[in-house]
């Protein structure tokens, strides 16, 4: 339950991304700057945290040991996640991007067979391919249905290009984020804490962000002051606070795919926070009756995930007692 609350808290801070990215696009800011500046601003803060905790040396040693995997999975988890999201914000409203992003609650569960868990047997410890937790997958689809109901009334307002360019890049991001997160967890093997791992991913992806920012400068010139301020807010809120909260939650349940799916499903609450934010800040209309039903389904789905996680904990506890 604590991990689910951490996930919901992370969603609240993540919602800032969708609202401010859309705001920057509406004011003429380039998506290239919106994406790259977030991670460029993140690095000093994360570096300071890790330095104060005196944990920089173990991180650099770990990255030096496996540099290519760190670069690959950091690129997947950060660049293939955030660049498509900011690109989509240039073509679709924040609610469309945030709603499409909820595919990640299903994507995370579908990625399970790509990972292995360690199991103690009579012959010793062996690695076994993880199986899709169908209970968690079913609940995730229920939540996704709620998200779809929120989006449907407003989809008619969009052109085909807005739908295409506002959705497809986000689908890529929805699979890339949990894949990169889980692969770097696997890569660090419990030897790094969350702060070290997030900094490692930020450092490994930094060359890509510098290239993107260079292209942004060549195409659009330097970013305006308003975009610098808004990307700075996104970097602190979404890049540092939300990412750390979400990664802490997923690391705590990394050994159990069902619980991990429950934590990843908390991302569905972003739609609610984005909706509230756009109503308050961007004067968006109040949700329709269908959208209200969708909100109720999302809340019910999150309660089901909490119940599902609680039952898994009880099952594991009983299994441990019987040994």
Automatic annotation (TrEMBL):
Listed transmembrane segments: 31-50, 70-89, 95-119, 131-152, 158-177, 198-217, 229-249, 261-282, 288-308
One matching Pfam family: EmrE
Alphabetical keyword list: Membrane, Transmembrane, Transmembrane helix
Native source species: Jeotgalibacillus soli
Name recorded for this polypeptide: Multidrug resistance efflux transporter family protein
């Amino acid at each position: 339950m604590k991990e689910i609350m951490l996930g919901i808290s992370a969603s609240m801070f993540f919602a800032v991304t969708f609202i401010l990215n859309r705001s920057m696009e509406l004011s003429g800011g380039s998506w290239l700057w919106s994406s790259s500046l977030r991670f460029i601003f993140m690095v000093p803060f994360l570096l300071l945290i890790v330095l104060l905790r005196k944990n920089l040396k173990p991180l650099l040693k770990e990255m030096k040991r496996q540099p290519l995997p760190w670069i690959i999975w950091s690129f997947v988890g950060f660049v293939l996640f955030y660049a498509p999201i900011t690109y989509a914000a240039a073509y679709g409203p924040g609610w469309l991007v945030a709603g499409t992003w909820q595919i990640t609650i299903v994507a995370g569960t579908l990625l399970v067979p790509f990972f292995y868990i360690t199991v103690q047997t009579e012959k010793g410890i062996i690695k076994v391919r993880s199986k899709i937790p169908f209970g968690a997958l079913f609940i995730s689809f229920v939540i996704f249905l709620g998200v779809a109901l929120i989006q449907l009334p407003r989809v008619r307002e969009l052109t085909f290009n807005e739908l295409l360019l506002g959705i497809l890049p986000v689908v890529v991001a929805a699979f890339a984020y949990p894949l990169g997160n889980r692969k770097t967890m696997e890569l660090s093997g419990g030897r790094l804490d969350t702060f070290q791992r997030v900094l490692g991913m930020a450092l490994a992806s930094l060359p890509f962000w510098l290239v993107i920012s260079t292209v942004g400068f060549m195409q659009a010139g330097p970013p305006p002051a308003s975009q610098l301020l808004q990307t700075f807010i996104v970097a602190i809120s979404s890049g540092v606070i939300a990412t750390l909260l979400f990664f802490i939650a997923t690391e705590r349940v990394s050994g159990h795919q069902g619980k991990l799916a429950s934590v990843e499903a908390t991302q569905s609450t972003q739609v609610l926070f984005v909706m509230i934010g756009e109503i308050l800040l961007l004067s968006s209309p109040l949700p329709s009756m269908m959208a209200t039903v969708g909100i109720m389904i999302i809340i019910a789905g999150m309660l089901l995930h909490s119940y599902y996680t609680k039952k898994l904990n009880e099952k594991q506890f009983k299994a441990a007692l019987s040994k």
